Structure formats: structure tokens, C-alpha cells
Amino acid sequence: MAGKPAIVLVHGFWGGAAHWSKVIVELHRRGHDRLHAVENPLTSLADDAERTRKMVGQVDGPVVLVGHSYGGAVITEAGDLPNVTGLVYIAAFAPDAGESPGQISQEHPPAAFENIAPDSDGYLWIKQDKFHDSFAQDLTEEEALVMAVTQKAPLASTFGDNVSAPAWRAKPTYYQVSTEDRMIHPDNERRMAARMNPRKTVELDASHASLASRPLEVCDFIELAVRETGA
């Protein structure tokens, strides 16, 4: 894969970098050896974007940024770096300037919105007994249980953090819609994708956790971005 862009994977709310495990294994099997996965603190969009910028800054050469869920807002904010050649959104938020994930969610509330609960420290969690049905209904109960118990909760205030200058206005973009998503309304995903005028949009019959339930198709999509933006 000499000369190909590095791939930097950015996770979203209620999980960490390990949510990309199946994608990482499959991309590596296909010969991609320049793989990186950001571990975001989920404390604010500014903090997460800065962590992602630092990761990208450690990579020599071009980078394709891939964001899942809230990770899409992160790559939207951090993707303006000169070595970023493309942005891939996997069932992800893609806010415009002055827009936040929370604002987008209010326009078309997701089916599982009521299964999100705050704690006394200001963090938001998906109720453990609702995680499978809310986030990953097309995974096994065991896989969803591990995700539920190990979920990484964001500070609630992060939902309201606005994007400043969206990188998707200047970079080639790709968007994967999950048609059975219960965490981001599929119509919100379609709307965000359409206004970006992406090079390609694909729809998968998948839950919010398409990166885990449909890793082969997600890897195909990432590879398309690598091929088209890696010159």
C-alpha cells in the first residue's frame, strides 16, 4: 500500500477506539498498514478535535479521516488540516457552521432518544438494558453487552458544542447512511449527506453500529475514499 493515505479512525459517543476493531482487522487484512484510531476524551468538541488534530499531526503524508457517530462532528471540526485528503462519515453527524449534534437530533429525534440517561456528574449514558435495542440491534446480545458495559459516556454539554468551520465544505466527502439507525435518525443522516454533496453516499440496512455489524461494506467504502483521494 505504499503511497496510500494513512487511515485515521475517530469514534463517537458511548464507545472508544475499540469500536473500530472489526474494521481495523479487515483493513489490515487487505493490506492497509498505516492505521490509527483516536481515543477521544468526549469532554468537549474542542478537546476531541484537538486530540484528533494531534493524532493527524503525528502521521507523515496524506490522511483519510473516518468518523462514526459524533466522530463525524470531530472530523468536521478537525479535518481542515492540509494533509487530510478526504472525510468518510459512518452513520455520523456532519454539522454545518454554528450547528451542534444536539441541534440536529432535535430536528428529527432518534427512535432510542428516551434510552439516554444523565448521571449526577453530568455524563450521558445509554441505559445498559436498552443498549442492544438502541445502538446495536443487529449485533449479538453478547457483543452488545460488552459495548453496554464498556460504553464511554460523553459530557452532556458536548451535545451542544457547535462546529466552527466545517471541513466538509472544502474536502472530498463520503457518507454511509444506516437505514435502521436508532441513535441518529436516518432522515437526518440523509439530509446531512445531501448538503455535503459527497462523492458517494451508500445506504446500509444496519443499526447505528454499522462499523461493527457491517465491517466488510464499511471497509469497501473507506477503501473507495482512499483510492479516490490518495493521489
TrEMBL record:
The keyword Hydrolase applies. Keywords: Hydrolase. Residues 7-220 form the AB hydrolase-1 domain. One of its GO terms (molecular function) is hydrolase activity. InterPro entries: AB_hydrolase_1, AB_hydrolase_fold, Sec-Metab_Biosynth_Hydrolase. The keyword Hydrolase applies. PANTHER family: AB HYDROLASE-1 DOMAIN-CONTAINING PROTEIN-RELATED (PTHR37017), ESTERASE_LIPASE_THIOESTERASE DOMAIN-CONTAINING PROTEIN (PTHR37017:SF11). This is Alpha/beta hydrolase. It comes from Streptomyces zaomyceticus. The lineage of its organism: Bacteria, Bacillati, Actinomycetota, Actinomycetes, Kitasatosporales.
